[in-house]
Amino acid sequence: MKDILIITSYFPPETGAASNRIFHLATGLEKQNFKVSVLTPLPNYPKGRIFEAYRGTFKQTSIENTITIHRLWLYASNSKNKLLRLFAMISYSISLVWFFIWNKIPNTVIVQSPPLLVAFTCMLCLQRKKRKLILNVSDLWPIAGLELGAFKKDFSYKLLENIERYNYKKADLVLGQSNEILTHVKSLFPEKETFLYRNYPDFELPKLEEQFDSGEKITMVYAGLLGIAQGIYRLCKSLDYTNVVFHIYGAGAEQEKIVQFISKNPDLPIIYHGEVSRDTLHEVLLNYDITIIPLLNRIYGSVPSKIFEYARLGLPMLYFGGGEGEDIIRNHQLGWISKSGNYSRLNATINNLSKDELGLKKRLAIQQVAKKYFDFNCQLLKLTTRL
């Protein structure tokens, strides 16, 4: 049985795409006869506070589903203050170094990036001749930060670019969740070994049944992080509600603004349901006609993992984010595309939708695409041959 360590900044009981992705990777490798351990901070995302059950300790080790999980201290923060967020990453990096000093590290290590600084700490401290370092890149930083307006092209940006290049250089294998990520890595290091590792979910296909909704309007749902990048607050203000009722699930930085907007506009058909568990969400999503996957701005290298999760649920999608995600929606006929940032075009697309074209036939076709092309276990088996 081969030992493998996964180092990540996000892991359950935290919610979100990042923690789900690493959880599925860990449990999948365990089923493939790897002895898996996970190194992660004490749970704190997305609220920026250590979860109550984990407070008062600097380290907690547990065995969950035969996986050993080491949770390390960090200064938790989701503050908009860049210095506080930087200190949070540095604090976790310090905890990692301390762990590396006092513990035996396996010869195969998967490191999640971003955060860049955490990945840099791992690549710097863990490089050994006999050790294989695998960098799992889910987003291209600092490029994504520049496109989101979080960075400017100054000295600090140049420093982050150098850290990014160092991480790629020291990695024996780079996993990327999009072809754009792998193209970027290859542009810097043409000989680097890479592997396309999409964020496919791993759950049973639900049984789909015909919906009997007597309402005339289409029910559209958004579920996920209510952050600045997703632009749900602006979406609430920009939608034409003639043909749609908008349901929202999730939490994040824009949550309060969205709740206040709904309160001040009670005549608009917007319903905020708060945050629910992933299992509950899978059940309730089956009741809606279509889901929307928005990004306020097109982010190079980003492919929302919701695409693959919703496909498995057989849920038609309206994609409003640009980039590689558009190609996946279009090539596999998973739904409709509207150009990122063009709200008038988005409203025209919604107003042209009908309940008939969102029915059981469409849902079953989408689910079959997921079964054939987005299979977690097939992808994992191909990855294990590279570990």
From TrEMBL:
UniProt KW Transmembrane helix keyword: yes
Domain Glycosyltransferase subfamily 4-like N-terminal: residue ranges: 17-188
A Gene Ontology molecular function term for this protein is:
hexosyltransferase activity
Write down a Pfam family by its short name.
Glycos_transf_1
Domain (Glycosyl transferase family) spans 215-372
Keywords, ordered alphabetically: Membrane, Transferase, Transmembrane, Transmembrane helix
The record lists the membrane-crossing segments as 83-102
The record, for PANTHER family, names: SULFOQUINOVOSYL TRANSFERASE SQD2
How is this protein named in the record? Answer: Glycosyltransferase involved in cell wall bisynthesis
- Annotated organism of origin: Bizionia echini
